[in-house]
Amino acid sequence: MYKDNNEELFPIVDEEGNTIGKIKRGNAHDGTKILHPVVHLHVFNSKGELYLQHRPAWKDIQPDKWDTACGGHISYGETVEQALLREVKEELGITDYVPIPITKYIFEGMREKELVYVYKTTYDGEIHPAKEELNGGRFFSADEIEKLIGKEFFTPNFEDEYQRVILNREV
Hints:
The protein has 171 residues and is an alpha+beta fold.
């Protein structure tokens, strides 16, 4: 079974994204809610469907739920753009896409507080979800997503971002 590395270092950031310190992954998710940055990529196909990943049961946050196509922490010393390229390649196996920045916002969950950098892309190529990081993924229509919101199928982070960014047509 796989497990997240609780010793991995993340930057501590202020609300503007300036690095003001560093924190271990385990401490970033222990309920202290120290602000740290993450990247999200929403992958649409040319039909307007949205690709979502299925989080494996071993994940320390929101196991066995469906989530944004690609999301990951920014490592200490890494730029937002470097983290996005790394995470998308690791999680989805794609490198030939054009990320378009949408927005950034602060998300506060039950155990963590994150500065979320949101990107989108349109991609019709093959997606190869990383077997060691994900439990697969697929494209969903807007109708499918809207019928499943509030039913504990998706992560709260995804539901919040879907309503905040996608339904508000920031994309």
